Amino acid sequence: ALRVAGAGALGWPLVVKPAEQGGSWGVSVVEGPGELAAAVAAASRYTVATPHGLALDSRVLLQSYVPGEEYSADTVVCDGVAYAMPVVRKDTTRGRYRVETGHTCPAGLPPEPTLAVQHTAARAALAVGVRNGIAHTELKIPPGTDRPVVIETGARLPGDNICEIVEAATGISEAEAYLRAVTGRPPRPAPAREGTAVIRFLLPEHSGVLEEVFVPEIPGTHSEIHLRPGDFVPEPTDSSGRVGHVVALAASSARARRLADLAVDGTRMKVNRP
């Protein structure tokens, strides 16, 4: 596979990622063959899952890069019948490392592409064999098209506090829907309310020792700091580099995103280089 990719058969840029891992660990976007060997070596470092200690598949996936806006859609399956959860918009960094910087629920797509994303995610969940459970699928819609492309899918609840913002915005509890499905009871995915919830992650500019962090108190938002002063902060190349997060809730997407941006822009963080 490395020879095929190195010869350009998959095209450039190319996404390199561990076969089993999460949190963007070991994932990078390479622009040409000169960067490929180092990216593969970095992705193959992950042989044990943190913090569980479970052995991981040490193989490396090479994927053609798909441009476009990124979304996620969860699918609850009960007795082989798929039930679509709300579509969530994903924001990421640019460059070599594409780390999630936040999520917005609902995604703000028009009805037709929303249904297309949900339908594609449901097909992915069923294709990997989910019959009673949940699958988290990440997709992109390339520019100039209306066809979602599956980036990856996993038979699990979403991370990144997505369950929290889905429930805050719509009243739908994905955890409850999941439990209903695995106990043979169809979920109830109809929204109980209408609003928008946004989460923004607080990322440092560089690695080092956290000295202090201040997040302003803005009505309509709440924040959580994951680390304490004196803790080491990794480089922001994956989700382990997050210092905390801010959640904003409002009646409209524009208002919720504005509140979240105000909180993040007003955050003061001091990280001393090692």
Describe, in plain words, how this protein is organized in 3D.
By secondary structure, this protein is an alpha+beta fold. It has three domains: 2-64, ATP-grasp fold, A domain (Dna Ligase, domain 1, 2-Layer Sandwich), CATH 3.30.1490; 69-182, ATP-grasp fold, B domain (D-amino Acid Aminotransferase, Chain A, domain 1, 2-Layer Sandwich), CATH 3.30.470.20; 196-272, ATP-grasp fold, B domain (D-amino Acid Aminotransferase, Chain A, domain 1), CATH 3.30.470. The protein has six helices and 14 strands. The longest helix is centred in the middle third of the chain and has 17 residues, at 111-127. The chain starts with a helix and ends with a strand. The relative contact order is 0.14.
Entry summary:
This protein is of the alpha+beta class. Helix content is 22%, strand content 32%.
